[in-house]
Amino acid sequence: MTSLASVTLEVTDLPAADRFYTAAFGLGSQVRLRASDAPTTGFRGFTMSITVSQPADVDSFIGSALDAGATSLKPAAKSLWGYGGVVQAPDGTIWKVATSSKKNTGPATRKIDDLVLLLGAEDVKASKQFYVEQGLTVAKSFGGKYVEFASDDSSPVKLALYKRRGLAKDVGVPEDGSGSHRVVLNGTTGAFTDPDGFAWEPTSVTSTSA
Fold first, then answer.
1. What is the pTM of this model?
2. Measured between alpha carbons, how far is 60 from 55 in angstroms, rounded to an integer?
3. Which tens digits make up the pLDDT trace of 114-130?
4. How many CA atoms lie within 13 A of 42 on its CB side?
5. 196/8 Cα distance (integer angstroms)
């Protein structure tokens, strides 16, 4: 089964980005960094999502990200589905930290339950079919709005598709954007590019862990 092994974020200041991600989230080899000056403007068409077990962990990660230099896009707050907030890293990557729980069961542990890369797709159904043809297996699908692909123990990063407009709205930014996505998906298969321009590379391609 084709799977997503890690994500490479392309950043203009590699040492600064490495310091930020170490201090903010401490994700290790799941998120890698490499230098790039590729032009990009506005919404890059993707977000990273950290899922945790309780609000205290949301507050802990949001707090450490802000202390490390992130910008708040949506302050952590309760909602119908749980509790969460959104920040933008200094390199421009948008991060959502959330939990389905509205009550704490103890102090923050900073344990990450899931790390999810959400790709904004113009045509979710077409992109889903493309990924199925590349060897990914659909775990959940909600028409033309959202698709989540199956993952196993060798896939520390989950992959999902979200209608681009809906994804931008969810994190509180305008949907307009152009240029490079500034993200590369590191998979267990060969190199390819999806219908929305997101590029995959084999996991053997070298980059720096965050």
1. 0.95
2. 9
3. 999 999 999 999 999 99
4. 10
5. 17
